[in-house]
Amino acid sequence: MDQIALVVVGYNRPDSMRRILHSLANAVYEEKEIPLVISIDQSGTEEVARVAREFEWNYGSKEVICHPERLGLRRHIISCGDLTERYGAVMILEDDLYVSPDFYHYATSALMKYGEHPKIAGIGLNTKRELLESPYPFFPRHTGYDVYFQQFATSWGQVWNRRMWSAFKFWYEAHPKLPQNVNVPLSVLHYPESSWAKFYQSYVVEQDLYYVFSYESLTTNFGDAGEHFNHSSSAFQSVLFYGRKEYRMPDFEEGVKYDIYGEPLGLASYLEVPEEDFTCDFWGRKQEASYKRYLLTCCSKPYKVLKQYSMCMKPVELNVMESIKGTDITLYDTLEPSEKFVPDKKERIRFLEYGYGIINGRDLLKWAVERMRQKIRKQ
């Protein structure tokens, strides 16, 4: 297996660059001669480059690349992915990240296990506790292993080897304009033009591929103000794994899998409906154009009810797998409209209580009012 080269991506934030390099220096490495590449986009300032050049890397070679012209984030990341041709495998770390002491051990273990599997498009180092572009928490199902698989390409720390990157690059060059796909969230399709991630995420969905994710996050994000965010925020922080362990990794075919929305795959067999005619959309976030005949959701819909379950157990799919009786989760036949449909006005509150427990209405109101004030001040 190729040694994973660390590629730190910077632009105009010297403090962020200093912080991530500090976390890399304090991590634990069993391997020797780990290449470090610090790639800096042109910003008109030399301070970031000075921080990079002064940093002492004691675990292998160090190279600082200062691009002479402004690339923008997408072109910059693409150029870093191209380094797989030189190193065989790279880990991309943008400068607002911070790594776990065990990050490199996890990455090498995952790459050794899945690096050549044709269904794997990348190794993710960040684990979020909420669904994509959603307020609802994400509870991936545990089966005794340390990783699961999801059709989502994280941009908060990822590993690509030459096989993974060359396959994506071939697709990317064939799609200079992002293809519209009803199975990709609209929020992803509407990412800024400078986003490389929306291309990779669309690629993963279109080609039916997956990323490997640890249940415990090996990076966290400081949300520093930059190209895509105009103010720093702690909202992007993950619970960082701060220990060390040997990772238990299943064969891909046996692993727990989720789609790009964080919806579980494989429930059709429990419901006794054909997989090719089935859509799981527990939280009502998918485009209705993507719905197939049988729809499993926690949302009230104007279709014929076939089966119902409770929404008590976590993760939510366990209610279906264990046939927990209730009326919160419904399997609909979308080909048969219902004349008795009544919208559930308490639906969103029910979702939030499932995710967060009993909600403090006063604190929620204060938060909402303050957010409105912030928006008014910006205008």
Can you walk me through this structure?
With 379 residues, the protein is α/β, with parallel strands linked by helices. Helices cover 29% and strands 19% of the residues. The chain contains twelve helices and 15 strands. It has helices spanning 14-25, 47-54, 73-81, 84-87, 103-114, 162-174, 186-189, 197-206, 268-271, 317-321, 347-356, 361-378, and strands at residues 4-10, 36-40, 62-66, 89-94, 97-99, 120-124, 147-150, 158-161, 210-214, 219-221, 257-258, 278-280, 294-297, 303-309, 329-337. The strands form three sheets. The protein has a nine-stranded mixed sheet with strand order 3-2-1-4-8-6-9-7-11, sandwiched between helices. A four-stranded mixed sheet has the order 12-13-15-14, with no helix packed on it. A two-stranded antiparallel sheet has the order 5-10.
Provide a brief overview of the structure.
This protein is of the alpha/beta class and 379 residues long.
Decide which structural class fits the backbone.
alpha/beta
N→C terminal distance: 53 Å
Beta fraction: 15-25%
How many DSSP H or I helices? 12
Give the proportion of residues in helices: 25-40%
Unreliable stretches covering 5 or more consecutive residues: none
Kindly report the spatial arrangement of strands forming the biggest sheet: 3-2-1-4-8-6-9-7-11
Oligomer: single chain
What's the count of strands?
15
| Main sheet summary | 9 strands, mixed
Rg from Cα:
22 Å
Query: What is the 3D form?
Result: globular
How confident is the prediction overall: mean pLDDT?
A: 93
- Helix and strand run: EHEHEHHEEHEEEHHHEEEHEEEHEHH
